[in-house]
Amino acid sequence: MHRRPAAPPSPPAPEPRAALRTAARVSVALAACFMVLLVLVALRWHPLLAADSRVSRATHRWAVRDHEVTQVFRVLTDWVWDPLTMRLLAGAAALWLVWRRAAWWTALWLAVTCAVATLVQQSVKAVVARPRPVWPDPVDSAHYAAFPSGHAMTATVVCGLLLWLLHRRGTGRALWRTAVVAALVSVVGVGVTRVWLGVHWPSDVLGGWLAGALLVAVAVLVYEWPRNVRTRRPRRR
């Protein structure tokens, strides 16, 4: 009788802690960047204020001169990339996860992260209490304090979470590229509109981007942590 050759050893399983380590490193880096910017804004560091003023004066001149572009930007910032629209998008994604995937934990994680982002945004605004730009001929108006930009932060959180879910669950190349482009256009575009319309300083938008990305990284840590603990737990014999 001929013996069957031994089966080759199976390839090692992918490292379960890779996503956790990456999210932790990104969280630390983003937290450091955001804290530096927060301190500079709170202390009213002159070089930062001067740079904000130069950019804002230039974009305000363009906004007053180019009425058509300004009107388009107002529609985009008030309806397409508005925080309420972004939260509704996240809510629709959460409902889809429950209805089609029965992914209750993921849907709850998505909804809670968006709620925490709103709470953090309003708390930082209240603590820093940075005044918004004031113009003799404003083209738009906004409420509450300036730092960080709620539009920029909300768009970053929602787009970042949805992109991560798509990446984690696997999707076609065409859909993934489309989603990445849409997310980048939304996150960058909403920041541009807020500065163009004269309701935020550029550093407010940068702060919104950093805070939003930080919350996404922390949310990934929270999501992956239980899975990592289960993987490391020794099996009972």
Automatic annotation (TrEMBL):
CDD domains (alphabetical): PAP2_like_2
Native organism: Streptomyces cyanogenus
Pfam family, one: PAP2
Highest taxon above the source species: Bacteria
Lineage: Bacteria, Bacillati, Actinomycetota, Actinomycetes, Kitasatosporales
Database matches in InterPro entries: PAP2/HPO, PAP2/HPO_sf
Keyword Mitochondrion listed: no
Name of protein: Phosphatidylglycerophosphatase B
Transmembrane regions listed in the UniProt entry: 26-45, 79-99, 106-124, 144-166, 178-199, 205-226
Assigned keywords, A-Z: Membrane, Transmembrane, Transmembrane helix
PANTHER family cross-referenced by the UniProt entry: AT30094P (PTHR14969:SF13), SPHINGOSINE-1-PHOSPHATE PHOSPHOHYDROLASE (PTHR14969)
Ranges of residues in domain Phosphatidic acid phosphatase type 2/haloperoxidase: 107-220
Keyword Cell membrane: no
